[in-house]
Amino acid sequence: VVLGFVAGIWANKKVQESTKPSTTELVMFISFPGEIFLRMLQLLVLPLVVSSVIVSLAILDKKSAAKLGKRFACYSLVTTLLAVTTGVILASLIINPKENELQENKNGDKSLNAVHSVLDMI
């Protein structure tokens, strides 16, 4: 974790020092492994939480299990809605819509780079 932190600081410094016009592509390539890592962590956390709740409910009696199950469902719903709302609000405030436009070719045609398409599929 510490090594990744130091590598991130180093990469940030190198990207900031870069005077090339393709800094946004460099940031995209550097951030891609981090995005994959965070998605893998998210895929790991949810099954662990759900399985631990199921095991806990199996130990309890029927009345307590129903009560705890309802609380868990409500808690999950509320936290998911809060996360989605916060994400949408922050994304609409931070992301400039013009940044997401397609790149223009020399002919003036708009098209996607093949690398961008492959990374978006993953």
In spatial order, strands of the major sheet run 1-2
Give the CA-based shape.
Answer: elongated
**SS elements, strand count:** 2
Q: Report how far apart the termini are.
A: 24 Å
Name the poorly predicted regions. Answer: none
Task: Describe the 3D structure.
The protein is mainly alpha-helical and 122 residues long. It has 2 domains: 1-59; 61-94. Helices cover 77% and strands 3% of the residues. The chain is built from 4 helices and 2 strands, in the order H-H-H-E-E-H. Strands 1-2 form a two-stranded antiparallel ribbon. Helix 2 packs antiparallel against helix 3. The longest helix has 37 residues, at 23-59. It is elongated and about 65 Å long. 0% of the residues are buried.
Task: Based on the model shown, name its key terms.
122 residues, mainly alpha, two-stranded antiparallel ribbon, 2 strands, glutamate:sodium symporter activity, symport, glycoprotein
